[in-house]
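ok posting inputs for the adenosine-5'-diphosphate job
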Amino acid sequence: MADLTAARETLQRVFGHSDFRGLQADVISEVLDGRDVMAVLPTGGGKSFCYQIPAILRPGVGLVVSPLIALMQDQVAALRTAGVAAARLDSTIQSDARRETLNAAREGALDLLYVSPEGLFAQGFLDFLEQCPIALIAIDEAHCVSQWGHDFRPDYRALGQLAGRFPGVPRMAVTATADLKTQADIRAQLRLEDARAFIDSFDRPNLVLAAERKPSKPQDRIFDIVRERRGKSGIIYAATRDNVEKTAANLQALKVPALAYHAGLDAGIRAERQHRFQEEDDVVMVATIAFGMGVDKPNVRYVIHADSPKSIEAYWQEVGRGGRDGDVAEGFCIYSANDLRRAVMFANQGNASEQVKAVQIKKARQLFAFLDGLTCRRMGVRRYFGEENAEPCGVCDVCTDPPVSIDATELASKAISAVMRMDQRVGRGRVIGHLIGRTGDGMDERYASRSTFGIGADTPEPVWRGVIEHLLFEGVLSEGEDERPTLCIGDDEAVRAIFRKERVIRMREAAKSTRRSKD
Ligand code: ADP
Ligand code: ZN
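and the output
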């Protein structure tokens, strides 16, 4: 392991900080030893020093690839103020300044050179770089290589060729957000198969999280949560503009200072409402996900998902807007099988490639399996991001009031059999009616003679509803997209495993929505 004395000395002398934080020292040490790294550090974790300091210490220029011109400008300005020889090449740089920068790079007189991916692949630039002494190559916002995320940049895919062009130069992929799949993508696309991964904790110890299935009157549940927290600042996320407007109006009627926010509103109104939210201490913002970017209010005390988010990453980002000041903040997520159906439908209707759609759907399913699951909330999220050693948080709903779980493998087998015997042609209500052995009232006589008719008569209807929802959340069953969706098999392999009892289905004994909040 590299001696970090010089690195620490640089941190102090150039940047004025006394010591490294988090994983900075480990990342820097690896790069100083000339090896590749992949670093996933939360926002504010101090990613820039991870490449800036080795770039200063190693001979040659450190090349930083970043898609954000504003960020490059800030960093270069800050580095120059600190006396570091830094420059950038982007579309705003004039040709004289450009020539000067290129000369400095060739002579080894630059410590850091920031370029956009377009700039990097501009005619002849890579050939030029091959003649320069290169200290390292850092790829910032590395998650942009992954086409599953919303920040996908096709240019980033080509960055893999740097491996062949600059053998022996340590390369770094750096990002603040990358789940396991994105991490795998970064490795494969950027040819960092052997890079050591440094994943800093995504934990937010002051977040107290809970999730529950939507009760029959979800609005009432939300009002209860808000009323119990009167005078505190909160955010309520809803999926549609209608739902946003309706919820905000209903809260206003209850004398809660609620504001609506969505992309359909005038920019002026949005700015004004965001300002009020930021400045006043008791405002509740009811919003679509259009509200978020650039929101940095320290004392948001709770975040409610009135409709479920898109993925575990989105969930974490959104609840993460609570408790920025470090004091306790609560997150409540209210979800239903219909939310999952909507998420699948949106993915399918989008114009992404089939492959991307499949991943979006998988991410939605992972979210619902997590929400409806039996794992500590914070631990579940952290494991999802690749933190293998994450421990239960001790304060979430699962930790403080562990849901009673039952082995539902047998029930699942019966429900799946019924779906199959009914030719995957009917919806939830009828499958349950069939299992219970109900006749008349909209039940189709045709299926009454099938072997699965009435095989679940000894199990109450709400339990069947729970079993089917659980199988939907796990993706074993799925639902069509019609007005009256039919149940069908979602995962043949899972079904076979359940029939053979190789896969155990554990689920909550009762839907949590039947429980009232404790306080
Ligand atoms: P990000 O990981 O979000 O890109 P930055 O690299 O911009 O984070 O750093 C975030 C802030 O933390 C900056 O103001 C930086 O000066 C500060 N910082 C980073 N590392 C340290 C450290 N070891 N000691 C003190 N401050 C640090
Ligand atoms: Zn927990």
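notes: The chain has 22 helices and 17 strands. The CA atoms of residues 424 and 436 lie 17 Å apart.
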